[in-house]
Specification:
By secondary structure, the chain is mostly beta strands. The chain has no helices and eleven strands.
Length: about 150
């Protein structure tokens, strides 16, 4: 039986907060969009914000011409899943990026880069900065999708 397979690249630091930033809402809720010129636009909160935005799962999906649909989701934790089922009733293995209980808001940005890859952004509240101090960080990862 054919299935979709996900391969993750290493995390890429996109932005990090000062070690003094501990407030809820800052360096969280990344959103990623593909621009008309092929560039990427990333937005995220840099300060505490409305409590109405917190506590809600924020799934993102992209579909490919090869029949694969890729999903990013979380709360708690942060995960990717893929399916080749056109109805989305049967999904492949859950790929864990951050385990439940790890410091993250679980919000993500997800865009298709080409016919077999995507770029996903997410927050990690304990990623070390260059001094080794855990800080709120927006990370990005290249994701490769194939069928087998």
């Amino acid at each position: 039986m054919k299935r979709a397979v996900i391969t993750l690249g290493e995390p890429i630091v996109i932005s990090q907060a000062d070690p003094s930033v501990k407030d809820w809402g800052a360096w969280q809720f990344p959103s990623l969009s593909l621009m008309a010129d092929g560039g990427l636009h990333l937005s995220y909160h840099t300060h505490g914000d409305s409590a109405a935005a917190y506590g809600k799962e924020n799934p993102h999906m992209v579909s490919y011409d090869n029949g694969v649909t890729l999903l990013s989701y979380g709360r708690p934790g942060f995960f990717l899943r893929a399916t080749i089922d056109p109805a989305g009733l049967e999904w492949g293995e859950r790929i864990q990026i951050l385990e439940p209980g790890h410091g993250t808001c679980s919000y993500s940005g997800l865009v298709a880069i080409d016919s077999n890859s995507a770029f996903v952004t997410y927050s990690d509240f304990t990623f070390p900065n260059v001094a080794g101090i855990p800080v709120k960080t927006i990370l990005g990862r290249h994701v490769t999708i194939r069928t087998e």
